[in-house]
Specification:
Number of strands: 27
Largest sheet: 5 strands, antiparallel
Shape: elongated
Number of helices: 7
Mean pLDDT: 91
Distance between the termini: 56 Å
Helix content: 10-25%
Length: 429
């Protein structure tokens, strides 16, 4: 009996060790930029405080503003202004969803920023002031903390606006605020700031000799990163500098149900998400799941794709051929090596097998250049979201092997693996 108990205990301990080995705790200790960070110019206007009065947000006259009186501020500056930052984590009864800011010495070389963190309109009891940048090339980065939970925070970047080379645009921007905010006076568009938000925290998943970025995206900007349907899990290649929060190939909404991440043919179950985005815990799966994809032996749906030269092709055109679909991009690891193997595959049995590569690029002309100069012997098309969604592609690189009439054989065979498998299949015939 004692030998049996010892055996059971050994088995349980061994199983626990294996489970721990398959688990990865990924620190998310870096700030990430989503697709809006650089593309969108969000202007934070600075209005003059006249008689220590702050007018709350009115959204271009859609909401009746309140007039708030500053209770206390540091004296000695030659000018004062106010602005707001959207942050629902900081409860503000008088200006819901926004945090009040006071700008002191607006026209000085280095204005000072006071943040009303406790929303009491006293700008002297919230800690030290922050020094705003003098030059348009400089910026100020700081955190806003939730009033209910100090660990829940978002990171803001303020940068001076530069209209020195755009006098017509400067004029239009000043006129815009004069028209929509008649009850207050703008300090001048040159003394306002561009607002950018770091609402993604990311780290690196390292498995064997491979790695990729994974992050959490705070969709509602409240400083919490684990809220179902609001927040998202995002992945990207190491070479990517921007996280695509709206692209289903690279991100998905956090759910109360089981969640899985796939990269380079490897799958991971999401075991735990820290609500403050300090870490995410994953479990590496040794047996791959279908994750919503069409079962082997079943047909994939019909679709049309656009080739690099603009020509359209329908997948059903290749119903009499075996087809190897490969999803990749220039920033994906082993792109050059894999596309070289695609050439070999396409040359092998050109009458029986068709190779179609769907390539993700930042600009459409990049694929056109690639197609023009690469002398392709396989089809190269744009990676379109509709196709990704229809085929349930979860990451790059990915592949699907189809038999005749669009029937699935296997998923996620790397080009060299597929090449060997297809050769053996043809030799057996």
């Amino acid at each position: 009996m004692s030998k049996f108990i010892s055996t059971v205990l050994f088995f349980l301990i061994f199983t626990k060790i294996i489970a721990q080995q398959n688990s990865l705790i990924v620190p998310l200790n870096q700030l990430g930029r989503d697709e809006r960070f650089d593309k969108f110019i969000v202007t934070m206007p600075v209005f003059l405080t006249i008689d220590d009065t702050i007018h709350t947000m009115d959204f271009e006259g859609m909401v009746a503003p309140q007039k708030l009186k500053i209770k206390k501020k540091y004296r000695g500056y030659n000018s004062y202004g106010y602005g707001f930052l959207f942050f629902p984590g900081n409860k503000n009864v008088n200006n819901p969803g926004f945090t009040n800011l006071l700008f002191a010495g607006i026209y000085d070389q280095h204005p000072c920023l006071y943040i009303d963190k406790n929303n009491n309109l006293d700008f002297t009891d919230d800690g030290d002031s922050l020094l705003l940048p003098k030059l348009t090339t400089d910026s100020l980065i700081f955190n806003l903390q939730s009033s209910d939970d100090k660990l829940a925070e978002i990171t803001i970047r303020l940068k001076r606006l530069d209209y020195s080379s755009q006098p017509a645009l400067r004029k239009r921007m000043n006129e815009y605020y004069m028209y929509f905010y008649k009850d207050r006076e703008l300090a001048g568009i040159d003394y306002c700031y561009r607002e950018q938000r770091y609402i993604t925290r990311f780290g690196y998943v390292r498995m064997n000799n491979d790695s990729f970025k994974i992050g959490l995206f705070d969709g509602n900007n409240n400083g919490l990163f684990n809220e179902p349907e609001n927040d998202r899990i995002i992945t990207s290649n190491n070479a990517d500098t921007v996280f695509e929060s709206k692209d289903e190939l690279h991100s998905f909404s956090i759910s109360k149900n089981a969640m899985y991440v796939e990269y380079n043919g490897e799958q991971y179950e999401v075991q735990e998400i820290d609500k403050y985005a300090r870490f995410i815990k994953l479990k590496h799966l040794t047996d791959n799941l279908l994750l919503g994809r069409i079962k082997p032996g079943k047909k994939i749906p019909k679709f049309e794709f656009t080739q690099w030269n603009g020509e359209k092709k329908k997948i059903k055109k290749f119903r009499r051929n075996d087809v190897y679909l490969y999803f990749t991009g220039p920033n994906v690891k082993n792109f050059s090596k894999d596309t070289a193997v695609l050439r070999q595959i396409a040359d092998l049995y050109p009458d029986k097998l068709k190779v179609i590569a769907f390539i993700e690029v930042n600009k459409s002309y990049e694929l056109k250049i690639f197609g023009t100069y690469a002398n392709l012997n396989y089809l190269a098309g744009f990676r379109e979201r509709e196709i990704v969604k229809a085929l349930s592609v979860h990451g790059l690189p990915s592949s699907i092997w189809l038999r005749k009439r669009r029937k699935v054989v296997a998923y996620d065979l790397k080009p060299e693996v597929f090449l060997d498998a297809y050769k053996k299949q043809m030799e057996m015939k």
